[in-house]
Amino acid sequence: MARVFCVGHAVEDHIFRVDTLPAQAKKYQAKGFEVIGGGPAANAAVAIARLGGHAYLAARIGDDIIGDSIVRNLTAEGVDCDAVRRCEGVPSSLSSVFVDDKGERMIVNHRPADMPTEPDWIAPLFPDGAGAVLADVRWPEGALFALRQAKKRGIPGILDADLPVPHDGALVDEASIVAFSADGLRDYTGVTDIAEALVKVSTETEAQCCVTCGAEGVLVAESSGVRRTPAFPAEAVDTLGAGDIWHGAFALAIAEQQSMDEAVAFASAAAAIKVTRPGGRAGAPTRAEVLSLMNTPTNLETVE
Question: What is the mean pLDDT of the chain?
Fold first, then answer.
């Protein structure tokens, strides 16, 4: 069983289902409501556990009832939470999420500004035998520490480079693989065209770089240019957490020593299944489901 150490954000999501996303200041009636866990690193850890990997999570949460709920739900999913730190006197992170009939979402998140940032306490909790590190950008200090640890240990350090990626370049430089979101890549490079932006960043770092583009697939930077792998066809019901699920599946595949192409395909299949299901990370698939989709004949081909 491959082991992945996830470092970053854990949050509780309060999800409101609405016909259309709010557009003005007035009262709206939700047609559905649920409470689930969220956060890029936490969602990725759940995806890894469901896909048959051993997921460890390092995150900072408050010593409050929201924090109790976050840990309880992660533990129920099989995520190792020994490195989840409970910070006294600070509230846990909480998000209100609006999801419309098209599966698109609007997120309002509260992350306490006074949450401790120092990451040194992670060192003795770094799991033995980890095959990869996955770090999000919500806790830059923790991500930098974890990626440097991965480099010292000679294992892949994967950066989930969603908004906002720090512009100083430290996280990108310390990672061995950088998986950008389209928005994260545009913001980081200042270049609007995605392929051009990916080429730009890949020439400025030794890391392997790719960018997820939702239904448009994944672009991977190579020495000869940019290669696009199409997404698996899927009718989106809920895109909440899809990128996080992709990163978790991708990190697990890398920890299993799959190739970049294999990892992208595996992650893309996991994300395609997730978007067809409501409930954020509750829609994360099992390994059997991912392999079934990957073995279903399609017209998917890598596009140069």
Answer: 94
